[in-house]
């Protein structure tokens, strides 16, 4: 039964997640931590941190790790946990796949439509809000009031905005500095 619930939960998350993985995090947290209580807030924060550190989209990585963790916490075997992981990953990308496939087929017909351009423009504030909500979830009293978190944020912003630094190098440098500080 958990596999069906897991699939449906991540399928719904995939349907309502515009703006990529970071925009998806607040909805994932709402569903798996608050609504279903499958994992704790601490586990969620750890999973997001691991998802950011591993290659690939953070939303899909989070779904993968959460699917594994949920089935592991429920006592399933290693293969059951791998199945939960794969199922959550598939479920979260399936709506996007279906939508993109449909849009590709219809795009030639609607690409010059004012309605389509207007819809894309109207979604921008929603995406920004979802990303801001994801950032808000990850802020804890420990990192919000710590001077080094603000210093790392300012350094990353200045490096990317004014010095046009490669974001990969900024992330790696921030990780190394964070490792040394914390």
Structural class: mainly alpha
> Biggest sheet, in brief?
none
Total strands: 0
- Radius of gyration over alpha carbons? 19 Å
- Which geometry do the CA atoms define? globular
What helical percentage do the residues reach?
A: over 70%
Order of helices and strands: HHHHHHHHH
Strand content: under 5%
What is the averaged pLDDT score?
Answer: 88
Question: Distance between termini?
Answer: 41 Å
Characterize the structure shown.
The structure is a single chain. The chain has 182 residues and is mainly α. It has two domains: 2-138, no CATH class; 140-182. Helix content is 82%, strand content 0%. It contains nine helices and no strands. The radius of gyration is 19 Å and the shape is globular.
Question: Concise description?
Answer:
By secondary structure, this protein is mostly helical. The longest helix is centred in the middle third of the chain and has 33 residues. The protein folds into two domains: 137 residues, no CATH class; 43 residues.
Key features of this structure:
182 residues; single chain; mainly alpha
Can you lay out the helices and strands and say which pair or pack?
Layout: H1 2-15, H2 21-35, H3 41-53, H4 58-73, H5 78-110, H6 114-138, H7 141-144, H8 147-161, H9 167-181
């Amino acid at each position: 039964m958990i596999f069906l619930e897991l699939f449906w939960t991540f399928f719904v998350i995939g349907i309502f997640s515009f703006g990529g993985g970071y925009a998806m995090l607040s909805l994932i947290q709402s569903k798996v931590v608050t609504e279903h209580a499958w994992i704790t807030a601490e586990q969620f924060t750890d999973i997001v941190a691991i998802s950011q550190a591993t290659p690939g989209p953070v939303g899909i990585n989070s779904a993968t790790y959460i699917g594994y963790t949920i089935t592991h916490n429920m006592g399933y075997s290693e293969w059951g946990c791998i199945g939960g992981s794969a199922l959550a990953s598939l479920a979260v990308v399936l709506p996007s796949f279906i939508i993109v496939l449909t849009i590709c087929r219809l795009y030639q017909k609607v690409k010059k439509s004012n309605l389509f351009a207007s819809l894309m423009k109207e979604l921008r504030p929603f995406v920004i809000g979802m990303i801001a909500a994801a950032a808000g979830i990850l802020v804890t009293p420990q990192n919000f009031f710590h001077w080094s978190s603000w210093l790392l944020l300012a350094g990353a912003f200045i490096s990317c905005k004014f010095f046009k630094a490669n974001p990969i190098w900024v992330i790696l440098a921030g990780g190394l500095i964070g490792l040394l500080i914390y």
